[in-house]
Amino acid sequence: MPEPTAPRPISRRRLLGTAGATGAAGLAAGAVGGTLLGTAHAGSTTTPLTSIGTTVHPFHGTHQPGITSPLQTHGHLLAYDLVPGTDRRGAAALLRRWSQLAAALMAGEAADVDGTHISLDAGPSSLTVTFGFGAALFDTLGLTDALPTALAPLPEFSADALDPDRSGGELWIQIGADDALVAVSALRLLHRAAAGSAVQRWQMTGFNRTPGATARPMSQRNLMGQIDGTNNPQPEDEDYDRRIFVPAQGDPPWMAGGSYAVVRRIRMLLDPWEELAQEEQERVIGRRKSDGAPLGGDSETTPVDLAALDGAGRPVIPVNAHVRVSSPETNDGAAMLRRPFSYHDGLLPDGAPDAGLLFVCWQADPLRGFVPVQRKLDRGDALSPFLRHEASALFAVPGGAARGGYVGQALLEG
Fold first, then answer.
1. Among the options 81, 114, 178, 228, which is catalytic?
2. In sequence order, which ranges of 39-162 are alpha helices (DSSP H)?
3. Of 166, 167, 196, 171, nearest to 84 (Cα)?
4. Does residue 252 have a cis bond before it (omega within 30 degrees)?
5. 1, 123, 366, 385: which one has the fewest Cβ atoms less than 10 Å from its Cβ?
6. pLDDT digits (tens, 9 = 90+) for 103-129
7. Residue 179 known to be catalytic
8. How far is CA 311 from CA 223, 235, 293, 299, 323, in A?
9. What is the dihedral of CA 342, 346, 349, 353, to 10 degrees?
């Protein structure tokens, strides 16, 4: 994890000068809005309501933030393509602007850099900003010699129904925060800073449960009502870092301390799912819905016993249950760190919910993490009939930036 560091003041003019002249207009409009809206609380107490807004994650460090950081309530995933004619120097300038903005915003310096005033009243609120590179970027910039083997295209899966307009991308940004306005503020500023260098290819917006919404800390629930993420690798695992991060002597060298992110937009067929009896839902997943315990177990953290049999000699956890099919024990130890957001984008023309999971998983090598598990799921997972994979992308996420540097510097200046 990156080491916490003290925030360093940064010039608003230097950060936003390249993003256009709209900042000044935003500042003027924000001043008026602040006067009109601020009067309602003129006599309110200064005692903080919660500590959510004060949580800070450092931007600089060995690894980028937003990989092993706790899941936030609000998330935005964005892909960009470089504007034709943008060369390696232009790409480096963009990544430097983005990195400086991210560092300032994550340190809680929104008042110094945010001409929109969207998040002026809030603290950093666990904001993280993460940057990644798609395989197409290496062709565009003439860097094919530096293309990682692990960034090879993902194989086709039989359940895929992928929309190319919402897949791929040369550059990727993941934004997470525990306040919606803080997250949107970061999105707007990063988008403005891309002007003239990159154009947005796609954007996806998701959410998770708000911290403190449950009486005790719990894993997230997804839109199927299931507890999600229980079997993630844990920091205390001996091979935790090895599963997630490229080693210091990794290949290629510029990816040292980095990771690979697989992004999938997975629509859940919620109407037919909700027609199933709860008992059948639990057999599809292999866990109780009430507390996330594996079938036959006592609690969410009870180890999954794939060998357990019932009184009739049948597996307690069905042979095609999602928990069994995706388990490292049935995939030669393959595992990944899942860090998703749910989404709900309204209704489709047939009235079905356009809702599901913005699946994001992290691993040192997707060919040993995501790919073998997804192949196994593709062949015989009881959950698959209730899912539609509609978008997909794979990104190389370099290690964290040093102070004074930027994400991807070793690639773009190497």
1. 228
2. 88-106, 110-113, 135-140
3. 196
4. yes
5. 385
6. 999 999 876 776 778 888 899 999 999
7. no
8. 33, 37, 20, 21, 21
9. 40
